[in-house]
Amino acid sequence: MSRVPSYMGVGAPSAHAKKLSTASTVVAIGVEDAGRLLLVGGNAGAQQILLPTPEFGLSFRFAFTADAASSGTMIGGSSATVFDIIIIGSTGIAAKFGSTSEDGQVIEFIGLNDNRYLALPQALSSGAGGVWAAKTT
To answer: The domain 24-134: what is its CATH number?
Structure first.
């Protein structure tokens, strides 16, 4: 969350949010989405979110506003863009929710270099199946 001058005064918190499309089960985000709060939820099928190639300091924060429909959401690269994602001591090529209980979950991805993201899951509600490092997408 950045602090910018606004009608509420200088230094008022401002979160730039973007709701990801539910029209497709595969959503690609770009570098222009870095630093935004990306809202995810409401898809009819299993969702896959494609991250851009990592860069040092590049960060994305996802907040889930509904449970998944059929299986946990997967976040990673495309089959043409493979990179590492580190989650709590394990490494894979995608972050995968362990259950469909995603409502209220937040996960942040921070670029460590040009081949690796660090994923920081933050459970804001109970009942989630956790997030794990998937070896395949």
So the answer is: 2.60.120
